[in-house]
Task: structure prediction
Amino acid sequence: SHYSQAKFNLSAPDISHLGADKGIEVAFAGRSNAGKSSALNRLTRQKSLARTSKTPGRTQLINVFDLDEERRLVDLPGYGYAKVPMAIKLKWQKSLGEYLQKRESLQGLVVLMDIRHPFKDLDQELIQWAVAADLPVLGLLTKADKLKSGKRKAQLLMAREASLAFCGDVTIHLFSSLNGLGLDNCERVLDKWFGY
Ligand code: GTP
Ligand code: MG
Result:
């Protein structure tokens, strides 16, 4: 897979420290502990490319992984973690907004949401920003392995229904980093964004 080529490039404390704004970038965003880093590791077939943790708020930096000279995957810090001071929360929300609006190379946003409680306020706000910036969104319902098949399907249907409210290019799929469920669907969407 193209994605197994991923190599760590840099960690940035904020958007202004990212590399040159050229080529194609796809970013992974979501609440703390939603499974962003785990999903990136599954996608890239590398167990510890992105650092994962049971402690929410682990990824505090923006981590950039290069697929090749033109294409990058970006692991964004999680939002919504209660113990983060308000000033830092606000600063991060502001720079996230700027990133979505100004980053020319950003071709798509993957929003990861725990299947047991998707579309929290900040998720909705983020998707709204992305839609307003004309960015396509792939919503992944993570940790799908935690639910039995019936409940899993019900959550997917509910999430797809909810996603219609955004009036933009929003696709929703199931995902499990544990067993690989939905990886094929995820890759299909990313392949399109990356031009593979
Ligand atoms: P932050 O960097 O803190 O924002 O978190 P994150 O979104 O990167 O989450 P991370 O990938 O570190 O995963 C958080 C926890 O959820 C870890 O304990 C993972 O092992 C677990 N987890 C992630 N994905 C899955 C999944 O698909 N299934 C199950 N069962 N657990 C998962
Ligand atoms: Mg992380």
